[in-house]
Amino acid sequence: MSTQLARWATVALLVPVAWYATTEIMEARQRSSVAQQHLEGARAAIAAGDYRRAEVAVGTALQLLPADVELQRESMRVAVALAADDIQRATGAQAGQLRYALDVLDAPDDPLHLVARGHLALGEGDAGGALKLYQQAAAVAAGSSRPHLAAARLHAREGRLLQAVAEFEAAAKAEPTQLQALGPLSTLYLELKRPADALAVAERALAVRDTAELRGRAAECLLALDRAPEAIIHLQTATTAHPADAESWAQLGRAHFLAEQPNEAEGALLRAFELDPTPAYRMALGSFYQARTRFAEAVPVFAGLLKTDPAHVGALAGLAQSLEGLGQPAEAGRVWERFITQAATDPALREQVEQATARLSALRKQDAPPAPPAPAAP
Questions:
Q1: For residues 224 and 129, what is the distance between their CA atoms, to the nearest angstrom?
Q2: Residue pLDDT, tens place only, 69-78
Q3: DSSP 8-class letter at 125
Q4: Helical (H) or strand (E) element with 32
Q5: 326-371, pLDDT tens digit by residue?
Q6: Distance separating alpha carbons of residues 24 and 361, to the nearest angstrom
Q7: What's the pLDDT at 19?
């Protein structure tokens, strides 16, 4: 009897241990199953090119199974892809992690890896090495815009606009709906005095996604082509869809002004200023009043800007010109002096400084007291 009781006692002691062990096994299996679901979701996101969603999915899976080697490698692959899309992920503290991932994965001919290594080279100041890596990636990834975008941005940063255009064109050819290629390409065409080409690309971009920014870019192209009425339509659409977008209102004001519709121009510029009373929109409003010879209204706008930014050379020039327009040569001269002091150190403003110096000299002569009459001959 005592032996039987001892056996039952032993079984009773072992039951909780077995139960806990079984529970842990079940929980581990459940964690593994959920992690596998997240991993599959990550791979589906990668296949769709949505690396940010993949990053979230892999990160969630790693929280469940932090020691899983397969998940760790998948996380590295996602990190490399994200770095290829965003050069900021290849700088600072993230650069070391990216370099480690690239070394572990060891895929030297993968276009994503080549672009990411190019970003690392650029972060280290090796622009030539970066460009070579981008070109290698483009050679092995004919259907991808990513290497061309990286090369285009590098060319643009270095001031090689024609090469940048060629790479953005290649990116748009590889992926015709790639807004990261279409938007900058339209801007560069406009900068290179090719407004018709810029408009065609802007309209392609609008067909992909209708945004206030793209409407504004199309409007800029139309204004460059002297087609202000069509630009106004684009900008009215933008301000209707995005009534709090100050930039769209400012562009609409400029379009109305060029269409010789001053009342509408003033209303739009005032709305931009009300939404965002920063220097750019103060200058736009003040310049409008100045262009309409409404100097009394221009003066307080420029003066208000100078209260927040006393060194703003545009506001100084606008205020001086407006004071001249009001017939106040002494006050205008003092403002021109301030302008010359602020602008003299900027080589880009040399011509404006020379013009301001000439204006100041003329104002001083204008404001000087008349010379006394010559003494009468004996």
A1: 38
A2: 888 888 888 8
A3: T
A4: helix 2-47
A5: 999 999 999 999 999 999 989 999 999 999 999 888 888 776 555 5
A6: 90
A7: 46
CA 208 vs CA 177, 183, 204, 330: distances in Å: 6, 11, 7, 56
Residue 232 one-letter amino acid: I
Structure-token match 């769709």, residue found? 48
CA-to-CA distance for 151 and 166, rounded, in angstroms? 10
Residue (of 247, 234, 304, 328) closest to 280 by Cα position: 247
In angstroms, rounded to a whole number, what is the distance separating the alpha carbons of residues 18 and 289?
Answer: 86
Quote the pLDDT of residue 272: 97
The alpha carbon of residue 201 and the mean position of all alpha carbons in its chain are separated, in whole angstroms, by 19
Structure tokens at 234: 């684009």
How far is CA 136 from each of CA 35, 89, 101, 104, rounded to the nearest angstrom?
A: 36, 21, 20, 21
116-161 tens-digit pLDDT: 999 999 999 999 999 999 999 999 988 899 999 999 999 999 999 9
Q: What pLDDT does 273 receive?
A: 95
Confidence of residue 15 (pLDDT cuts 50, 70, 90): low
d(CA 193, CA 215): 19
pLDDT, residue 89, reads 86
Q: What residues have CB less than 8 Å from 322, skipping those under 6 apart?
A: 286, 289, 290, 295, 298, 299, 302
Hey, what long-range contacts does 33-37 have (CB within 8 A, 24 or more apart)?
34/61, 34/64, 35/61, 35/62, 35/64, 35/65, 35/68, 35/71, 36/61
Going by C-alpha positions, the residue among 115, 54, 43 that lies closest to residue 86 is 115
Tell me how far apart the alpha carbons of residues 17 and 30 are, in angstroms, rounded to a whole number: 20
